[in-house]
């Protein structure tokens, strides 16, 4: 881990989990924002493997990864952090999302893509500004 006075860029994977015409978001506890399941890419891990691992660790859901979405570059200065977040589009057709990390996430819920809750975690908010639509990655337009 880099020293606090020498921050280094990190790579994160965020998973846009789709079920029907909704996507899964969790309410992060600190800071209190909504985010997609995800976390740090581990050495040697593929983006799909990271998406599957992190989604299962956080929600208990098994997913079918379909596509790599945009990469969002987020730099914050207080505290300093720099993340390249790779978005993965995946499907989950069964099971209930559970808070498997209750110290980090208060709840999981499903939302329409064009009616996401606020505030969103910085990389997710930056993704929305790009007007990315995950549904064509699954073979059809957004419902």
Primary descriptors:
mainly beta, Nucleoside Triphosphate Pyrophosphohydrolase
Tell me the number of helical segments per DSSP (H or I, 4 or more residues long): 2
CATH class group: Alpha Beta
Structural class: mainly beta
What would you say the CATH architecture is?
A: Alpha-Beta Complex
Rounded to an integer in angstroms, the radius of gyration calculated over CA atoms is 15 Å
Distance between the termini: 42 Å
The gross shape turns out to be globular
Number of E-state strands: 7
Largest sheet: 7 strands, mixed
Query: Might you state the CATH topology name?
Result: Nucleoside Triphosphate Pyrophosphohydrolase
CATH superfamily: Nucleoside Triphosphate Pyrophosphohydrolase
Mean pLDDT figure:
93
Runs in which pLDDT lies below 50 for 5 or more consecutive residues are none
Helix content: 10-25%
Number of domains: 1
